[in-house]
Amino acid sequence: MPNLPDTKGLGFEWSLETVERDKTDLGKVPIPVVTDVLLFNEHFPNRVLAALNGQSIRVGAQRVGRDMRWKTSGIAVGIIGEAVLAWLKGLPARRASVVVTEVRIYIATDGTEFNNKEECMAHELSLH
């Protein structure tokens, strides 16, 4: 198995399964396979109850993996495994985000850069 989170003592093992979206093969994602229901239920009681209500552990793990592969091709299987483990624990999914910060730069005639207009002007005056 690739570098997946350790499941020793959690009541499940990892299996790798190919997922698709819009008929596009997204590659293999880790799927938890329950090996000990009592032990699994100790660690993830909400998931056993949800499975009894129709929310399959396998289908949920496929969704987590499919979403991550669709957004970021080439993402490591281990990172997807961590996200599936977080999903099993009921934690919110990690989301990739981009923060754009605009910074104004003032450049003096000698090429020196400043973040502040007054500093740039003072530098200009010192050059003459």
Q: Care to describe what's here?
A:
The protein has 128 residues and is of the alpha+beta class. It has 2 domains: 12-88, no CATH class; 98-128. Helix content is 41%, strand content 20%. The chain has helices spanning 37-43, 45-52, 57-71, 77-88, 117-127, and strands spanning 12-21, 24-34, 106-107, 113-114. It is elongated and about 80 Å long. The mean pLDDT is 88.
Report the biggest beta sheet as strand number plus sense, adding barrel if it closes. Answer: 2 strands, antiparallel
Roughly what fraction of the amino acids lie in strands?
15-25%
Rg is 25 Å
**Quaternary structure state of the chains depicted:** single chain
Low-confidence stretches: none
Gross geometry:
elongated
In total, how many beta strands? 4
What number of domains? Answer: 2
For the biggest β-sheet, the strand order reads 1-2
Number of helices: 5
